[in-house]
């Protein structure tokens, strides 16, 4: 199995043999580092707020900026994966985005910080490449699980950064640097890691199980790579937009919470910077298993009830997530807040996994474009949520209540979509495997 040039039918997470499993591990690691760089500033925002004299409105703009650029970047990157290949696309993204991560410490004004946060946000497009790469490396029977595990472990970077960045910051404080210098130096660490991994990804992965796009035989390349109009195909399918909304309601809220959690616990419950970071990190740390669980359950539901069953599962998880967030907003003590956070986090992250257990089957000839549009939906959701946290007339707790209601509405829409039509696309799955047979 390890030496085959076809998509794998089993996911052995303890193996790194063969191009499929090596790519699987390297792609979630790359995504993990991208998340680390993307949200490295989030747990340090209390320090940055004091250093730059930021207002609540300015912090809201910064949160929006951190996810806004990713909307366009994910769509563009999805198209590049279909035409240029995931290996080169990921390498370029890692290398280019390492620059603003390393150099954000050079800014000394709100305007400069806002622009750098916008530039760093481009790295969020990494998710689309990760999902594309795992989609072509695994068989349709297991692709939902593979996508969910890779995405979940990558998202884990959002939790780890909330825990680790305060420690890196404290390390520079211990070395004698003032807080206004320590947060700037701390961001160099994830930036360097991203740059190094760009080279690792280029030399140790392949675009497909059969090789890189420019190495494939002409017959296979014409049928699997040089497909024109993939973006149009994806945009014409209403299921793409249903998943776009769903991902905005789950992943969009996840990255919003990654941005605001530490500050929320710090200001609403008077937790220390370290404790707030740990609590926020716990939310992200659930990606270790929760998103993967969503993918596993989705694959099992799909085998028994088809894609219609997967769609109903997604709607149910979104509804439970919305209720959980509304309850979290009403928490009167830190203990209750943490308990309700863990509950809605489980439903949210499982919904992430279920969404991308459906994505690969919408159109096998346009996986990158569908992944890009749906992925962009996550960031559109984050941008819209960011406006709520920016408002001076709405408290953070009220913002969470509004978000919960909006998610419940999206759940109702998803429940009405006939995902069962996707069955017509399943025989085309793994076109690369068919071409090799």
UniProtKB/TrEMBL annotation:
Domain Major facilitator superfamily (MFS) profile: 23-423
Gene Ontology molecular function terms on file: nitrate transmembrane transporter activity
InterPro entries reported for this sequence: MFS, MFS_dom, MFS_trans_sf, NO3_transporter
Subcellular localization(s) per the UniProt record: Membrane
CDD domains listed in its UniProt record: MFS_NRT2_like
Domain of life: Bacteria
Transmembrane stretches, start-end: 26-47, 59-77, 89-108, 114-132, 153-177, 183-204, 241-265, 271-290, 311-329, 335-359, 366-387, 399-419
Membrane topology: Multi-pass membrane protein
Keywords: Membrane, Nitrate assimilation, Transmembrane, Transmembrane helix
Biological-process GO terms, alphabetical: nitrate assimilation
GO CC entries: membrane
Family note: Belongs to the major facilitator superfamily. Nitrate/nitrite porter (TC 2.A.1.8) family.
UniProt-recorded name of the protein: MFS transporter
